[in-house]
Task: inverse folding
């Protein structure tokens, strides 16, 4: 989890008022603000590649894909997060007329970073599971071509993992798939020759 900005406790309304005018993004967890830090080249490439692939597959369908600037409200307004990619199918529901806080994501995707991986797998996933509309939660590695997908089932969440550039991760809830070759396009290229 990113570092706490300051130990002051805020209400959700105070957070939203501050966040909408702040020069940087912060996540909100149990009354505390957590500054979002910049992402690595690999992290950015992976997120953009995923958003591109999903946007192409969702074209002409009643779904929208958002990349890391769409805030998600989780756990009854006690937590707000910025996933790397969010997809909503059907009419999007927002917290208010600002249309910047999505309430009903269908799929949420996080690109794992060393500083946030434990929280993405633990506390954040716990909060995301409380979103009734969420069908799939996807974790994408940066250091190797590997994707984990947790899919909501009647009796809990089921994990599917794929590894290797020839693998494909099905996202059944939105009738899409992620080719790892496309997800990791240019990610492992040597950039020192540029």
Result:
């Amino acid at each position: 989890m990113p570092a706490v900005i300051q130990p002051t406790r805020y209400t959700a309304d105070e957070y939203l008022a501050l966040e909408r005018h702040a020069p940087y993004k912060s996540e909100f967890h149990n009354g505390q603000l957590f500054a979002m830090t910049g992402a690595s080249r690999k992290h950015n490439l992976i997120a953009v590649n995923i958003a591109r692939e999903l946007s192409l597959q969702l074209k002409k369908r009643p779904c929208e894909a958002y990349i890391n600037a769409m805030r998600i409200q989780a756990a009854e307004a006690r937590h707000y997060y910025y996933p790397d990619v969010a997809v909503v199918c059907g009419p999007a529901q927002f917290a208010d007329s600002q249309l910047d806080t999505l309430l009903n994501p269908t799929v949420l995707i996080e690109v794992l970073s060393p500083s946030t991986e434990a929280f993405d797998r633990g506390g954040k996933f716990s909060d995301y599971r409380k979103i009734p509309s969420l069908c799939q939660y996807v974790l994408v590695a940066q250091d190797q071509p590997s994707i984990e997908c947790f899919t909501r089932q009647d009796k809990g969440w089921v994990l599917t993992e794929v590894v290797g550039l020839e693998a494909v991760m099905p996202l059944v809830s939105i009738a899409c798939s992620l080719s790892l070759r496309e997800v990791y396009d240019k990610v492992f290229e040597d950039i020192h020759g540029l």
